Amino acid sequence: MTINFETLWASLLLYGLNAIYAGALLAVGLYLSGAADRIVTGALSHARSIDPLVSNFLASLARYAVLAVMGIAVLQLFGIQTASLVAVLGAASLAIGLALQGTLTNLAAGVMLLLFRPFKIGDTVEVGGKAGTVTSLSLFMTELKTSENVQILLPNGSVWGSAIINKSTYPGANASKVEVSFPIRAGAEAQNMGRDLVADLAQDARVQREPAPHAKVSKVVNLADAEGGVVELTIAATTEPGDADAVKAKLLEAINNYIAGRPAALPKAAI
Question: Taking every annotated instance into account, which residue ranges of this chain make up the domain Mechanosensitive ion channel transmembrane helices 2/3 (predicted)?
Answer without folding.
Answer: 61-101
